[in-house]
Write a structure and sequence with these properties.
Layout: H1 12-22, H2 43-61, E1 76-78, H3 84-91, E2 99-102, H4 108-125, E3 129-133, H5 146-157, E4 161-166, E5 176-181
Parallel strand pairs: 2-3
Antiparallel strand pairs: 1-4, 3-5, 4-5
């Protein structure tokens, strides 16, 4: 094992050699953080993502079908391209749920943002069946199931949603929906 040199054993030659080797080097600033090296995203990709987010936000803001449902009411919706057999399979939980989100306890704004981000991520990953837990709204008092009604509205507006139906009792019952997404 090598022994550590004492400070007295460093010669003038050692010091001059060290100074020559470091040359014009200057100490780094003391930020205690490594510099951030993020890969550059092309302008086209950045604008495409922004446009997609804006389109999704606009579609979620549009006012269509403000039908309100009760806490125990089942939700169901399908595009004309979705057949009865597919709806039956969806309602019976026969599709494999690839991801889920729980919106319990969120405000409408938080739920909308979370749902928007979640559906976008699922679309990018190619998910075809997801579960959204919105709750039954039993704690909302006279206002009824606020998040449930908003989810019902938003999903009908989202073009990537082919169909949705209230989940089986074991998966949340009328407090959750299975959602069938278009294949990307």
């Amino acid at each position: 094992m090598a022994r550590k040199k004492d400070s007295e054993s460093i010669t003038e030659d050692d010091v001059s050699l060290f100074r020559r080797l470091i040359g014009d080097a200057k100490p780094l600033p003391q930020t205690n953080q490594a510099p951030e090296h993020r890969p550059r995203v092309s302008t086209r990709a950045r604008f495409a993502r922004r446009d997609e987010r804006e389109a999704l936000a606009a579609s979620l803001d549009a006012d269509i079908d403000e039908t309100e449902t009760g806490a125990g009411a089942s939700l169901h919706f399908h595009r004309p391209s979705v057949g009865r057999r597919t709806m039956r399979k969806l309602g019976r939980g026969k599709f494999s749920v690839q991801d889920e989100i729980d919106l319990h306890g969120m405000t409408v704004v938080q739920a909308k943002d979370a749902l928007q981000e979640f559906i976008g991520a699922c679309e990018l990953r190619g998910c075809t069946c997801i579960r959204i837990v919105h709750g039954k709204g039993l704690g909302s008092g006279d206002r009824g199931p606020v998040i449930k009604n908003k989810v019902n509205k938003w999903l009908k507006q989202w073009d990537e949603v082919l169909a949705f139906v209230s989940a089986r009792q074991i998966d949340g019952g009328t407090g959750a929906v299975y959602v069938l997404l278009r294949k990307s």
